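Folding Query — how this chain folds
Tokens — whole-number codes for backbone shape
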Amino acid sequence: MNADRIRSIWETEIDRLELEVIRIERLLRGLHAAPAEPWQPPAVPEPIPADLLARATDLLDRQEIARTALKDALAEAQKQVAYADRVAQVTGRSLTEPVYLDLEA
């Protein structure tokens, strides 16, 4: 496999991974995110080209930040659900019942 083909494959894979991180970052900001596609590692016998290594390393850092933010968001959501469950138990109200009516919406 020639060097240009290897570089093209790696650039495509890094682009796909970056789009996934962007999707997660949008999701964390409360924006609509496109559905994820499963990622398969590229079938390239050669290692990543040296000039793409810095970009891949930066992307790895963004992935770690996104992973931590997702973990924190999940933990916060779990706390909110637990709180809502406790409120429902104490008040005897169903979580599906509206609590108030917004007349200005």
